[in-house]
Amino acid sequence: MDEELYDRGLEKARQGDLTGAIACFTQALQVNPWLADAYYHRGLAYYDLGELQKAAFDYTEAIKHNLRQANYYCARALVRVGLKYLPGAEEDIEKAISIDPKSAQAYYLKGIILRKQGSNTNAILSWKQAAQLYLEQKDADNCRRCLENIEQLQSPPLIVPNPSIPNQPQVAPAKLEIIYQQMWQQAQKGDAKTAIESLNWAIAMDKKDALAYCYRGSIRALIGQDREGLADLNQSLQLDSKNLLAYQNRGQLKAKIGDYNGALADLEQVFQMVTPNAELMLVRANIYQQMGNYLEAIEDYTESLKLAPKQPEVYYQRAIAYTRIEEIKQAVADYQQAATLYSEQNNWDEYQNTLERLKQVQSATPVGIPKAQANSNPLWERLILLVGGQVEIAERLVEQVKLYYPGMAEDWYLEKVLYDIEQGNFQGDG
């Protein structure tokens, strides 16, 4: 009996007969006072009629009978916002998120609450999270609503840096670039599959979305799908010939697969459109180093450091270039400076790695992989076997990957090189 009355109430609510729906839910609760969903839906009807106090009472009753429904807390939070009881609304939203961390609605409401509290920066972060969740759920309308809210809080309009060119001149992006950047970060953390699926859907919705192709291509390159990544980046540039990120990432991908002239040509396009900055100089220097053009690499590393002196990875890479041309004194100085900067940044893994390199150079030993290190790590043993026992080749392959993906764990680099070799992605020894 109570279920029949409840279903009748739902049907009346769908038809817009809110008063009739309330009557049915009330009858259902008279039969079964523990029916949490009846309280919840009666609260929704009261809310739509503008009777906020009654809605709040019903949501509270629903929560009493079922403490694990995130949507109950979201509903009461919304009412509490309307009643200007922001601390209670915030408490409800945090509870909803703890129950369901994937609740896009909860993050959206959290953004509203934070904005009303004057915390615009945190409101933007919440709406970014909500937008990504809505996109994953293929809810384009609510995703756009989040992005529009974000834009409204920006003064001047939102400026988003290119994820691969942190210091580039800033330009206003398309709305969805905010979300695509989050997908890029998601892929970097290891969840490339979900990011690519979301970008597949975005492209299905708009086959002329140059940014979606750009980010999907970049993520595919990240996980070793070089041909697919190159195709996506080509498509992105066909749709938008001024896409700086697409040119830069395509250039790096071309260098990775051995097309150095093509890589430099793509970077030249970027240099023609923007004033060169530290990160761009670093990218070109890394390509020169891969080509074996160490003097050109050193020149670009030096220019990068003039523009941004606190870059330990640039000193580290320039030290390698100096070592290749047997300028040991300069290499030692650069390794020392890199170690100092890494220690100041509390990057202890890279600090220790740099000190090890420094010891090798100072003792005039080859910059190859120490035998003890190979023997102690099965991944090194496997890699050295794959390259026919040639330690220098193994090291060169690892260094090549480090140029593209700085800051990862040593074993990650080894696994990446092993995967690329086994998939036939390396065209040579660099």
Automatic annotation (TrEMBL):
Keywords: Repeat, TPR repeat. It comes from the Bacteria. InterPro entries: TPR-like_helical_dom_sf (IPR011990), TPR_rpt (IPR019734), Ycf3 (IPR050498). Transmembrane segments: none annotated. TPR repeats lie at residues 36-69, 278-311, 312-345. This is Uncharacterized protein.
